[in-house]
Design a protein that fits this description.
By secondary structure, the chain is an alpha+beta fold. It has helices at 46-68, 70-75, 106-112, 123-142, 182-187, 192-195, 210-227, 240-248, 250-256, 265-274, 285-289, 292-295, 308-315, 322-354, and strands spanning 6-15, 20-27, 34-41, 84-90, 93-99, 104-105, 146-147, 156-158, 164-166, 173-174, 357-359, 365-367. It has 14 helices and twelve strands. InterPro entries: Kinase-like_dom_sf (IPR011009), Prot_kinase_dom (IPR000719).
């Protein structure tokens, strides 16, 4: 990938005094195409270098899965990630070129009250967004073998068409490791805004299950989507809501907040199942996709259009659908069989009485 293929249109934001930036770039071969260029100074710090290389590895892994089986990958949620266009290294900066999402991240969408996701959002709108996030994470876990470990509203982008794209894989880890690597712990964000999504086991020096960590973050995201308020500052005993979860259980503690009084019981159950403190008892992402709050609204009903020609045909006195004719013939056949069986029963009853026997209504023959 050559750097001369792209030109900067505008800068979006920068972090760490410019060590990590995101620009909107155009393509020389297609000037109307807008892409995002996330570039990192790989010699600024060891932690930034590890984050950039880890993110590149995730994008390449996702691309490999899509190329190996495009149909299966798309069905399992590969479309929940930005389309990766390539990468290049220039003047010790690693550039990652991927799809540009016009609406920005979900935090920006809420602040700007985007028309794609209205302020008075319903459970149907929330379900649409949340289901896409779940499918994307399921694809990342099952097909790529990767846990995100830093999922938040800031790391979920929204396209103009209302579809989500999960991004920022600088803290991701391969599933199956007994604990987070030293590099990952160094990279873990220190700001309160990001730690609010972190599972309680991440605040302890112990082994973690990456899939269950992502499931906890999903629960926090769903709670914020529904209530528009944060659940924790940090999931430790220093937080009052977290202490209530330890004392009363997740569901009771969530109800005590008073922010879920107007939502459906199924939605409360899903949030509570994702926010179980014990990771061994916590719901997985795949289980969340099978939860009734999601599956009960995914059933598609077939609708037969009543065109004018069809209405005239149905109202015609001479029209009898094939199924109606079959039912009529079956009914007449049953009636004729019923008459013949009745005559047969009468003759049998006469014969039984002549032999000194009686027949009960359920067909048993007894001696009298």
């Amino acid at each position: 990938m050559m750097s001369t293929e792209y030109f900067v249109k505008r800068s979006l934001h920068m972090r760490d005094s410019g060590a990590q930036c995101v620009d909107v770039v155009g393509c020389v071969t297609d000037p109307n195409l807008q892409l995002a260029d996330k570039h990192t100074d790989v010699i600024a710090s060891e932690s930034l270098r590890h984050a950039a290389l880890r993110e590149l590895d995730v994008y390449l892994t996702i691309n490999d899965m899509i190329l190996a089986n495009p149909t299966e990958a798309k069905a399992k949620g590969a479309s929940a990630f930005p389309k990766f266009h390539g990468y290049y290294l220039r003047k010790h900066r690693l550039h990652l070129i991927h799809e540009f999402c016009e609406e920005g991240d979900l935090i920006t969408v809420f602040e700007n009250q985007s028309s794609v996701f209205s302020e008075n959002r319903t459970e149907r709108q929330i379900r649409h967004i949340f289901t896409q996030i779940c499918k994307g994470l399921s694809f990342l876990h099952t097909m790529c073998g990767i846990a995100h470990l830093d999922l938040s509203l800031e790391n979920v982008l929204l396209t103009e068409s209302g579809n989500i794209r999960i991004c920022d894989f600088g803290h991701s880890e391969r599933i199956g490791r007994s604990a987070m690597s030293d590099e990952a712990r160094k990279l873990w964000p220190k700001s309160i805004g990001k730690r609010a999504y972190a599972a309680p086991e991440l605040h302890e020096d112990c082994s973690v299950d990456g899939e269950k960590v992502d499931a906890w973050s999903l629960g926090v995201i769903l709670y914020i989507l529904v209530t528009r308020v944060s659940l924790f500052q940090v999931a430790t005993v220093e937080d009052l809501t977290f202490c209530h979860m330890i004392k009363y259980g997740s569901k009771c503690a969530l109800k005590r907040t008073g922010h879920l009084d107007t939502v459906s019981p199924l939605l409360v159950d899903l949030i509570a199942s994702l926010l179980v403190i014990d990771p061994t008892e916590r719901m997985t992402v795949d289980s969340a996709l099978r939860h009734p709050w999601i599956t009960s609204y995914n059933t598609k009903r077939s609708i037969v259009r009543r065109t004018p020609a069809r209405r005239r045909l149905l109202s015609s006195s001479s029209f009898q659908p094939r199924c109606a004719l079959q039912l009529k013939q079956a009914s007449e056949g049953n009636r004729s069989r019923s008459c013949s069986e009745s005559n047969e029963d009468t003759s049998i009853a006469k014969r039984d009485r002549s032999c000194g026997m009686t027949r009960h209504s359920y067909g048993a023959v007894l001696c009298v």
